[in-house]
Request: fold
Amino acid sequence: MATTTQIPAAPAPAVHRPKRRWGATVFGLAVLAVMLFPLYWMINTALQPDAGLVDVGPVPTSVDFSGFTSALSDQGGNLLTSLAVALGAVAICLAISAPAAYGLAQFKLRGSKTIVFGTLITQMVPGIVIANALYSAYVDLGLVNSYFGLMLADASLGIPFAIVLMRSFMVSIPREVIEAAEVDGAGRIRTFIQVVLPMSRNSLITAGLFSFLYAWSDFMFALTLNTTDDVKPITLGIYQYIGAHVGDWGSVMAASVLSAVPAAILLVLSQKYIAAGITGGSVK
Amino acid sequence: MSSTTASAAALPADPKAPAAGAVKKPVNPRSAKRRRTLAQWGFIAPAVIFMALFFGYPLVRNIVMSFQDYSPSTFFTGEAPFNGLDNWKNVFNDGLFGKALWQTILFTVGSLVGQFCIGLALAVFFTRRFPLNGILRSLILLPWLVPMVVSGIVWRRIFDQDTGVLNSFLGTVGLPGDTPWLTSTSMALFSVVLVNIWIGIPFNMVILYGGLQEVPKELNEAASLDGASAWRTFRSVTLPMLKPVITVVLVLGFMSTVKILDLVLALTDGGPADSTQTLGTLTYQNSFVQMDFGAGAVVGNILILISAVFAVFYLRVNRNEGK
Reply:
């Protein structure tokens, strides 16, 4: 950050009461410990598989990876399904929402306002209501139990959010930049791909990240739009796993850990985008 | 694809262009403008079509379905005869609907109050400058990013009456360590609310923290110079400035809480004895367990109606905010 402004400001409070500042850190650590305890417990249980139905110790004294091996052999395919479906949903989501966000931000079209309004509204339609109607339509169209069908449905979780987020970013692209590109002879599509998209990189990443998280976490569409085991994402896999393996918490928790890994990786790699997505998508 | 657009774009200079209308001039500014508008709509059209299919169609379809008789055989025969208000009457006469509605209210209000108060307290706490502030703040987001079903299953393990860590911890510190968190009808809903509060804290915290950053520091300083206590400053200066953000947080929290499904299914499957059944799970039960999509549609429509009331509220707030 702006080091020049921080240098004069920083020493003052440090001299004042250094103890209190570390006190706040200790309190913050305590809050974090409470908030992350369930996730710690998930890992802890996953590493103690033989402790099926008895109380597990606070730390894994003898680390045992058999829970992970059985989770991987039972759920590995479902993890790949989740990955494929989520990536497909991200692709559909960005392909549809990026041009729309650009159009709604930069073109002066009659009806744009109504569409933006409609986009905000769609974010409030309960998912189960969509699933309810979609199921019979999917049956008619042969999209039940298909990867493509689930990708489409999962893309719907991210599209309104992505449009709103990217639009609010693209509004601030100066008209002159776009006009300059058009003067240089670039067509509308080339201007969009070579000028607008690179300039909107951050908002594209944020939108893509969130549509990935939405699709990866999706349980409802996975549950309702699949009647066979052909397309089974990890969320559905774990849910069914718990019914069949209720005594084997080690494996269930190991599968849970595996399913939470993408969230953890994304948080570490791109906290900036995540924070931007949470605030940007909701406040604007 | 690109070749067709290119040739279409090349057309206007062509003498062939007037074919569309009766005008004879080779370059007609009006039709050129229309073509440009059409090309611009090309950017937006896919999204509009998608949203019409995945949001508009289900809304309409649900209304129609709520007047139709669906049974498991409908999906073989394709026949769902209209049955007037039968579905509506059945749903309302079934005591479960009232129960689910009441439990949805308890669940939503309880979750919102808990999430918001703790989220706000943490947001205020994190406005202080101390070492590791940024890292701690971003790590607290983790529970929010984990799939909700997974959180539900982890908590189900923690809540286990005999072997869960919560009861064994309570037992160790001398409290009653045999609470049937998820298996008694009087405790289950409370436990589900607790988990949902845990899930919602990060979201509330991040947005409220962002809002607090916008409150000018000079205002707080001026208030404390005037002799206002910290609490008084917070109540009379910070909170009013934060009001728009608070409204957004509460409405968005409401939206995601009122329709909850994943969490309840993972924790309790709506049980024991329907004590955690909400409108969201009831829609699911009616449609996808009983295969009575007509009844599911009725509950779904009521869920939409409740959401719509808040959607209007949200958009009004949003409009006032967007200057």
